[in-house]
Every structure is written in structure tokens, then in C-alpha cells.
Fold these 4 entries.
Entry 1:
Amino acid sequence: MSDILIIGGGLAGLTSAILLQQNGYQVNVFEKKKYPLHRVCGEYISNEVLPFLESLNIGISKSGYSRINHLAITSVSGKILQAELPMGGFGLSRYKLDQLMYEQAKRLGVEFVFERVDNISFKDDKFTITTPGNRVYESAIAIAAYGKRSNLDQKLNRSFFYRRSPYLGVKYHIKTEHPGNQIRLDNFQGGYCGLNKIEDDKFCLCYLSETANLKRYSGIPEMEEEVLYRNPYLRSLFKNSEFLFDKPEVINEISFEKKTLIENHLLFCGDSAGMITPLCGNGMAIAIHSGKILADSILRYAKKGAALNRIALENNYKFEWGKQFSIRLKSGRLIQQLFGNTFISDMTLNILNKFPDITQFLVKKTHGETLKY
Ligand SMILES: Cc1cc2nc3c(=O)[nH]c(=O)nc-3n(C[C@H](O)[C@H](O)[C@H](O)COP(=O)(O)OP(=O)(O)OC[C@H]3O[C@@H](n4cnc5c(N)ncnc54)[C@H](O)[C@@H]3O)c2cc1C
């Protein structure tokens, strides 16, 4: 019996775990992979969560992150838009960031179970998880922070799972010549690619593409040559960089559809509650922020030693989540439609180059307020 069970040890799950354990709860995190690990992610993190991460004492200030305050967007025809990022962000690999958070959670006493959860049930006011190792875990509160898509979505019969998603994500770490303070987004037909500096003078190169692009060619290298290289910036980047992985990290079936926040009292957070399009570079900040909002709701309505007010907890979480993220996720879906198509992205860059105020308005729509702690 534990106080809180968390499925998924990404940024959302680890944030909730650290905050709840710090406040006297015994937390168990179930994670199917071992740290440190590479994830498909652009690794640009909005500054809105930097002070909060500093407050968690994970050692973020010594991580060697890069500071990013400038944006460039290019189109297939070679047009470029440049803009300042008023809030800005920083670049740090998930390999390092998730490891730092995991180490802090462990120091605080969070218990990690490195197994894949195949089932979770709710009966008689408690959750039960049975792992493949046949151990049984029970608690009054359970959090689903297992990311954008998981075997559990099918088990829980979540409707988005049955709709095919047309996107795949690919990531490399590279060494290249590029301004350290600039995040660049290069468009190509059916997708876009992000480039920004992370720690140790490395860069993260990560792109989202329609799966149809890959189906047309025999593999990822062929697709890159035939589709991505049509943007002269991408061609030059791929030709003039040192690639540090043997092969890219790849994921399929990325969905930006609306998801449910609570199902049969199971509380979802991070990508499993809803994912912002990567173009906005804000999924990590939202994962961290939602982990914090959820922990705050639990601390308020499930005080240790007092009766659990499940209805108030769920209502409070729904209200706070909607207030923070509903509009941002919607804006992300709309902004994504302006890019990823050769003609439309060219036209968008023409307009944005003429009206810098619109660029700043769109940037603001995707970044949140500084997360208070
Ligand atoms: C192509 C691409 C580029 C992106 N670029 C950026 C960017 O530049 N900036 C940004 O802020 N965001 C970006 N994002 C989004 C960002 O990566 C996510 O929003 C963020 O990782 C969400 O964190 P999370 O904790 O919700 O999920 P995750 O980090 O995915 O963690 C979920 C964890 O759950 C575990 N898990 C899953 N199922 C089970 C199970 N059954 N049992 C046990 N464990 C399980 C997984 O192993 C994983 O560790 C990008 C996303 C994509 C696809």
C-alpha cells in the first residue's frame, strides 16, 4: 500500500512525484525504461519553468544548458523570418534533464518500479496495479503520466487511441556551426525540423513529419534526401554536421487530439492528458506545469491524515488545467496549420516578415506565464 501511484517517469510524473514526496506522501513511480534515456524531443524548454526547476534542487543551474532568445523560421523556398523570443527558453537534453529529476526524486525517497504497467483498476475506492513481476500495488490516488500514447490507452479504451495519427518524430544529436542562442525551425513538405543548442556544445536536431513522407521512400535517409533537403537550410545542415548517434531516435503515431483529463478517477497529466504541437516548443513546460497543478490539487484535497475529498480534488484539477492549457493547446493546433506545407509556409513567412507584431502575438500565444512555486 502506497499513498500515490504514478505511472510514467517522464517530466510530468517526476514533477508530481518530487512535490508529493517532499510533502510527506509515499510515492511509487512505475517506469518501463531505465534512466538515463534519449527521447524524441526538440529539447527547447520555455523559460517559464526555469525558476520552478531551480526550486526543485535538481541541479539545473550546473547542467550546462544553453540560453535561447532568438527564433528563425525558414521555408522550403529558402525564405527566412527572424524574431526575438521575449520569454525565451533553454536547451538541455532529455537524457540529462530526466536523469537530474529522477536522482532528486530518489534522494527524497520516491520508490521506482522499473516495470511496464499493463493494467490498472479502480474498485472499493482504491486503485490496484499488478506488474508483470506479479507484485500488487494499491493506493487511494493514482496518476497516469505515461506520455502521448501507451498500451494503457488501449486497455482504458480511450477513444483517440483508435484513430490513426499521421505523424512520426525523428531526433539526432549533432555537432554543427549555429548560433547558440537561436532556435531555428525549418519547414519541409509535410513537416518541420527544429535545431537548437543543448549542453556540451551539442545541438538537438528533431523533426516531425507526416508518415506519408516515409511511406513514399525506402527509409529515413532516403526520405531526408528527397523531402527535407529541398529546403536549402536543411540540406546544408545535414551535409555539414557531425551526427553523434548510430541511428536516430524515432517514434510513430503522434496525436494532438483532445484527450480526457480524468477517467474512472484516474488523474492524467502531461502528454497523456493532451499534447501541444511540437512547433510551439512547449510540451515539456506544459508537462512540468501540469504535474505541479496536479500535485497542488492533491495536497489541497487529499491532505495526509484527513479524509480524501475526491470530487473536490478532481474538480479543482479540471478547473486549473483548463485555465492554464486549453487555449494554448488550441492555438498550437491552429499555428501548426500555418506550417508544414510548402506554399502555405512560404505565404505565412511573407506575411509575418511584413508584420512583426503578428509574429510576437503568435509566440506569446504558445508560451505561458512564469510558473509560480
Ligand atoms: C517530435 C517532437 C518534438 C518535440 N519537441 C519539443 C520541444 O522542443 N520542447 C518541448 O517543450 N516539448 C517538445 N516536445 C513535447 C515533449 O517531448 C512532451 O510534451 C513531453 O515529453 C511530455 O512529458 P510527459 O512526462 O507527459 O511524457 P514522457 O516524457 O513521454 O514520459 C512518459 C513516460 O511514461 C513511460 N511509460 C509509458 N507507458 C508506460 C507503462 N505502461 N508503464 C510504465 N511506464 C510507462 C514512458 O517510458 C515514459 O518514460 C516534442 C515532441 C515531439 C513528438
Entry 2:
Amino acid sequence: MPIALITGASTGIGRELALLCARNGSDVVLVARSRPMLDSLAAEIKRGTKQSATVFECDLAEPDAAYPLFDRVSGAGIAIDTLINNAGFGLLGHLWELDAKRQSQMVQLNVGALTDLTRLFLPAMIARRSGRILNIASTAAFQPGPLMAVYYATKAYVVSFSEAVHNEAKEFGVTVTCLCPGATKTEFAERAQMTSTKLFSSGMVMSASEVAAIGSAR
Ligand SMILES: NC(=O)c1ccc[n+]([C@@H]2O[C@H](COP(=O)([O-])OP(=O)(O)OC[C@H]3O[C@@H](n4cnc5c(N)ncnc54)[C@H](OP(=O)(O)O)[C@@H]3O)[C@@H](O)[C@H]2O)c1
């Protein structure tokens, strides 16, 4: 049975991606900080599909958090076929006014954890000559973002990194793809304190399930 690990699976796009993976026949490993939400999703998956769902509570904004997570997953004897690096957040405001520690945590989560998890889970995929890594970037990746300078830059990194690693891995049967959503109705806007911005109040906002369906299609 193929196994997919999804970060940020407790809500939003990650939750929908986890449901889709399970409906498409993968066992799932669900990662985020909110244990009750992960447990509830795991129960929903077990009830509604034939797939197993394993929960790992983890704060991926902590420096080097990917390493103990990788050890816990490997220690449980779980081999990951699909890695979905979805967890991420944004912050709206002038660079010099935003909380400096939150900005560092954003870089750690959006860039650091994504890079480390890719690095850690890739060797087994390369050895097996099969695997998939899906990294969630954003349309923010394609231009600088005044008032969200760090967030936009993290997403530009995700696209650049994913394209380069795909180029390295493709001859070994492993794909690295990137999903670049525009404004999507999740908790993202509220967490970034940007619900009243034109971007999120325009009506041009997709649902998380629509975005996840696009990401799941190869
Ligand atoms: N919504 C949009 O408009 C939009 C547009 C483009 C790209 N994106 C990207 O899509 C991805 C998913 O975002 P979303 O819209 O679904 O937002 P969301 O509803 O806020 O979900 C974010 C997910 O990331 C997890 N997460 C946050 N901080 C974490 C941490 N420190 N450690 C582990 N997990 C953490 C959250 O779980 P816990 O809080 O339980 O940890 C949650 O499951 C992000 O990478 C985001 O940048 C979103």
C-alpha cells in the first residue's frame, strides 16, 4: 500500500490533500501541531476509506524539527512514497514592524522544514526508483511582495528548489512538483491577518478542495 506524508494536514489545503490521498488508495501520515484536529481527520479517513492514518504531532517551525520527525516515522517502520510539504503561513506588514521571531519561524517552516524533509525522505525514494514530492508554493512565488516580503520570498525559494531537485531526481523515477495556489479559502488569511485585503475579499477565492484536486493531478 503506498503511503503519503502530509505536513499541515490538520486544516485547509493539507487536510483536503490528505483526504484525496486516502480516497485514491494511499495510507496517510498526518503531521501538524493540532493533535485533536489530526486525530479527528484520522478517524474520518479510517471510517470513510480502507486506508490507515497515522498521526505525528510536530511543530515544524522549531529549528531542525524535521530530523526527529523523520526518526519517528522511520522508527515506526513507515516508508514514505509521497511527501507533501504543505505546512506554511504568511504575515502581512512592514518588514521592520512584524514580529522578528514569527518571521524567523515562517522561514523555518516554509523553507527550512520543507528542505530538510525533502532531503531526508528523498534517498529512500531514489533507492526504490519511485516516489513523489509535492511542495506547496503560491502564486506569490512569481513576484516580490511588498508588505509580505518574507512570505513571497519563501515561496520563490520553494519553486526554485523544487524545479532544481526535480531535475536531479527525475532520472531516478522520482518527481518533485510544485502547487502554486492563488487566494484560497482556509485559515491562512486569518492567520496572516489579511482577511480584509482586496486579494481575499474579491470573490476570486478558490476552495481548499478545488486547490487540492489540482495539486493531486500529476
Ligand atoms: N490559503 C491561501 O490563500 C494560500 C495561497 C497560496 C499558498 N498557500 C499555501 O498553502 C499551504 C497551506 O495553507 P492553507 O491555506 O491550507 O492554510 P491553513 O488553513 O492556515 O493551514 C496551514 C496548515 O499548516 C500547519 N502549520 C502551521 N504552522 C505549523 C507548524 N509550526 N508546524 C507544523 N504545521 C504547521 C497548520 O496546522 P497546525 O496549526 O495544527 O500546526 C495547518 O494544518 C501553505 O504553505 C500556504 O502558504 C495558501
Entry 3:
Amino acid sequence: MERLTQEDSLERFNNSMPTPNVVGPAGTFSGFSGPHAPQDSDLYKCVHCGFCLQACPTYLETGLEAESPRGRIALMKGVNEGRLDISPSVVGHWDMCLQCRACELACPSGVEYGKLMEATRSQVKQHTKRPLIERVIRSIGYNTLLASPRKLRLLGNVLKFYRKSGMRTIARSSGILKILPGNAELADKYLPDLSKKFFVAKNQIHPARGIRKAKVAMLAGCVMTLTHAKTLEATVRVLNRNGIEVHISKAQGCCGALNAHSGEVESAIKMAKKNIDSFLSSNPDAIVSASAGCGAAMKGYDELLAGDSKYASRATHVAEITKDIHELLVEYDFETPKNALKVTVTYQDPCHLRNVQRITNAPRTILESIPGLKFVELSEPEVCCGSAGTYSLTEREMSAQLGQRKARNVIASGANIVTTGNPGCAMQLDFALTEVATENSSKRTTAVRYVVDLLDEAYGPD
Ligand code: SF4
Ligand code: SF4
């Protein structure tokens, strides 16, 4: 495809936009209205300078203004001012956004792009009708499965059976996946590996080793309990080893990040309230998350519940005491491990750790503390891996492009292990490394681990 210069891309985009004085017949335009609409004070902070363009993964991949933060904000303004309808093509450009928020870091005007996009997606949900099958899948996913850890585990067990019983082989060879609705073939292809034993929150209290320095409530999460149960167990061990008592309340659930990012604000609010009640019941010094995306979501509970008189102050408290696992370990001056790991390791910054929580040093400090470990940096650490929650299924092509871009950088680093701190990134790296190796007809040589897995290993058994 022809690659435009930044100026040409902008010119073409501007020429395609209705000018401010072209107003359609009354009632033609829906505009933004109803709850959770983007606020003018946020929208008009953008001065269209374009500093964010080169930070945006979808712009880097396409070179198109409409796939840049500035272009998407211009579309929001177009709708807000009644010049544009919330049409499928406009929604398509918003859907292509990963919500990685790299643009926020690059923006000199302080545009809170993540906030704008969440509000815009809520408007899309309110004012448009997605195809029936998509609505059914979204409703089951966001309102039934993510809302109930028990139902999610049930699905996990069904998927394990699907893989192990031979049903998967039959489904693939029969061609039924091609005719089933809802991207069944893609979902099957990118079915992640599931943990042998799921991690279940059941009011466990894991005492600190030695003198207790702190008491924390731990978020188990949703997908991570099914895909990376061993990492959650390692997280508990590492915390205990560092004098931190861990409470894992049964009443907790999904943090609500996937819902909020998809415009399902009401269900995200319900999930946040459930977690606030659950976590604060043990009166913890901190709430810890081993998943970057979940930690970022909980640090945003104050904004999500700002208008709720019953929950606002407790939501602010939760946001203030929530810590990412790496952040917490460094704050509590974690014990330096003694066992050497003779490996070359790189680190993939999860966007919600780097761009949202602004944590980059803590994971590297932990890795560099491990004796024998050689740490190497990745090229383009700021570019999203393309996982972005459900994006890897809904925007498969862009997600795969970005995944392979990241995998190629990982391979070029020469590391035999790539570490991260987020389940979506871990799964995406796993798929992308395999895909790139298959394309190159070579053997995959890089494993994917969490930083906390390596720290646990370097501590050795108690
Ligand atoms: S979002 Fe920020 S960096 Fe991007 S065009 Fe607007 S003001 Fe400039
Ligand atoms: S959030 Fe990420 S993908 Fe979306 S506009 Fe910003 S930089 Fe681009």
C-alpha cells in the first residue's frame, strides 16, 4: 500500500472531513449525548500539533492520519460539533485504537486520551447497534463471564476439555469453525495455553516470613487466574518472602478494565464496587496486582466512581493504595536473591505499566538484582505489543502486525527469555514468537516469563 508522508496524510484526512459550516438536515447527526460523554474540557485540550503521531503504534504501522491520536480526536470533535455521524467508518478508526496511551506520554498539552476514548466508546455503545452476533458475544463476555470468576473457570474447564478430548482436532478438520459466527476460527487459533490448576481466590491468608512489614490484599484477576496461575502463586511467595502478609478475598472479581475500555462503563462500575468492598474488608496497607492492566484500572477507580456519593471516597482510597507488584517490591526494599540464573533476559514494557502507571525502572531493578542474569534492552520498548485486551481478537490484523514487530525486536535482542508483567502481553508474545519462528522456518528459542517468576526462581525454595 502507498505510504503517505505525514503532511500528505493530514491533507487527505482534512479534505475528507466536512467543514465546520456544513451542517446536515436537523436530526441527521446523533452527536454525543447521554451519560459518560467526552467532556469539551478534555476534547478541546488537543491543539492538533501532531507530536503524538510518531508515538502511536497504529500510525506507525499505517501512516494514516485517521489511525493516529490526532485524527481520532478530530473525528470525536466532528461528532461533537454535529459535522459527523457516528458511522461505521468513524467507529472503525476508534476501534483500531489500542488504548495503549503512548500518545499521552508524548502530548505537550496533557490530553487525557485514555479518558476520551473510554467515553467515546461508551457513546458508541449507546448510539449505535453493532451486529447481533457481536452484541450477544459482548454481552456474554462482559456481563456474564468477566462478572463471575466461577463462570469464567467453568469456561476454562470446557476449553481444557475441548483441547484435550480431541474435539479441537475434529472441529478444525471438519471445517465447522469456518462457518460458526463470531470469529470462531480466530478464537480457536489463538486459544491460549491454560494452567493445569486454576488460581482460585478463597479467602486465603498467606503469612509473612519473618517480621511482618505490611499486610496487602491481592487481586487475583480474571484471565490471569486461568492462564498464569503459577505466576500468581509465585507472586504470593515473593511477597511473603519479603515480610508481606497476603490476603486473597473470595468476594473479589475482575477489575473491570476490559469492560471500561470497551465502553461497558456500567458493568465496569459494578465490578469496581465489588472489588472496593472486597479489598477494604481486610483493611490492607496496600492492594497489589501482578497484572499491569488491572493495576492501572484500579488506580483509576477514583475517576470511575467520582460521581458516586457512597463509593467516591473509598474508591479514592483504593486508587491511592493500589500498587503494581514491581512497584511494591521496590518500595519495600525487596531482598536480593542469592541463586544465580545464567540467562540472557529482556523486558517488554506493558503499556499500562509504562504509559499509564509510569513504572519503568522497578521491573528492570528487580531483573538486574538477580545474580548471573544478563539484562538486555529491547529496541522500540515504547511500542505496544498489540495485545490490548480483546483487541487481539477484534482487530486481528493490526494486533498480529504489532505482535510480530515486537517478536522481531525480542529475537534481535538475543535474549533467551523475554519477561513482562501483564497476562495479555505474555500471551501475545508467546503467539507472536511462535508465528515469527514458523514464518522463518526456524526453531523458537525465546521463552516468555514474568519478572516475578524469575525473582521467585532466584529466591529458590523456602
Ligand atoms: S493529542 Fe496532544 S500531541 Fe496529539 S495532536 Fe493533540 S495536542 Fe498535539
Ligand atoms: S492510545 Fe495508543 S493506539 Fe490509541 S491513539 Fe494513543 S498511541 Fe495510538
Entry 4:
Amino acid sequence: MNGEHAMDAVESGIPAWLAATLNYCSRCGAPLRFGPVEGEERQRLACEACGYVAYVNPRLVVTTLPVTERGELVLLRRGFEPGYGLWAQPGGFLEIDETVNEGAMRETLEEIGLVVEPGEIVGVYSRIEAAVVVLAFEARVVGGTPRTTAEALEVRAFRPEAIPWREIAFRTTTWALRDWLRLRHPELHPAAVDAAEA
Ligand SMILES: [Zn+2]
């Protein structure tokens, strides 16, 4: 059961686009093989030449649900794929030298020009096909000026009852918005939201 190509890892649940990037050992450059590894519960991508095991794990995306003084929620209309033209919260991949709070603040400032203070974690959501885990903070807007960027075609503050449910980019965004609503505006939940999501 050796000599497997990295793409064979797809059947183990690694998305194909990710497996396609895992052909070679990052330590010695020899081909990675997918199969049993001693001491491991599941089959792994490993290097027969040096023994390196290439663990494949989701990456963390940190996001904020920025709330204005008036209690409105700031969303952006995405200027890039995936989800081009649809609404989402600001966020992005956590960098290796950041805390989750720092990453969430940085991404929010970069994407929509707002300075926020992350507060309560609204939720943590898996998007398995994208190999990401999305963390959503509620965040208080404390400064900055909302602005469009290459990443945001439009930045708009929505009243909680006016969230554009039918034009949301990702399920994880829908889940985060729904959980935020449940937290802060239970009177608006759930019938209208569930209907819009269907
Ligand atoms: Zn190696």
C-alpha cells in the first residue's frame, strides 16, 4: 500500500485543489506518497525519503461583524472571487505572527477602512470544501472612515432588519449573521431569516 500519488489523498477528504499543491516533500523535495503511517490513525501524505509527514489542516480565517454606534452592521460587497459582487463581512487569513484579535482588526482596516475593537465571538464555522475555519467576532467600530478598496466594491451599514440575505457570499457568512441576530436581535429571528436562506 505504498507508492500512492498525492492526489489519492483526495478520497481521504483533502480537497482536490489542495492535494494538487502537495506533490513534493517541503523538507527534502522527494515525492510525497499517500498511505498508512506508523502510529497514525488515518492515512497521511508522507515522504519515503526522509520520513516527513505532511499534515494537512484547515487554515483560520478571522472576520468581524462591525457594529456602528447606531447599531448597524457594516458589510462589504466583494470585489474578488469567490463571491464576487456578493455581501460578506471583512476578514481574511490569520498571519503566523498575529493573535486572532490582531488579525481581525487588520483585515477590517485593510478591507473597509474601519478601526474596530473585536468583542464577543459570535461563532466558529467550518467550510470543509475550502479547507478553512471561519471565526466571526462581533466588533465595535471605534474609528476610521468607511471606504471602498480593491477588495470591497461597496461598503454599507445595514439595519439588522435589512440584512441582504439573498445576496450573501458564503454560508459561513449567513451562519454568522444569523447567530449575531440571535444574540442581539432575537425579535428578528428566526422565521424571516430561515426563509431567506432556503
Ligand atoms: Zn522528504
